[in-house]
Amino acid sequence: MRDKLVLAIGVTLFLMLLAAMTNSWKAFGYLMALNLSLWLVFGAMKGEDKIGPAIWLGFIAFIIWAGCLSVIFYYWGLFKGTLPSFTIGGMHPGFFVLFPLMWLLSFIPVTLCYALLFDKWILPEESWNEYLEHLKKIRESREVGEYE
């Protein structure tokens, strides 16, 4: 599963490169959202085959990013070449979506969820303790001269 995910990340990176080279910035934005979601799922995998609850976090993040990008592209097209007829909080409507909405709706909750997911799924306390015990055995065997 991990190999397939790495391949999917590579394909999306290649498609992002093609989109940038052909000046297709909308496609680039959506591919970027997909790529970031895939990286989020990849980073939250446990071992080689266990995706676990990170798949939902990646899916939700992609939906939020794609939705925000759609609104940004809408305002970009609406006010292309002109000043906007209104502002939101003194900002261009597209920038308002990019900064406060996309950041508050996406970055902060996804980061917090990832931190909670990390403690429960990726590296629970018992796995960390097993790792520390393993290191302790290695140190003890090196003192005796067995582990070289």
TrEMBL record:
UniProt keyword annotations, A-Z: Membrane, Transmembrane, Transmembrane helix
Regions crossing the membrane: 29-47, 54-76, 96-117
Taxonomic lineage from the root: Archaea, Methanobacteriati, Methanobacteriota, Archaeoglobi, Archaeoglobales
Protein name: Uncharacterized protein
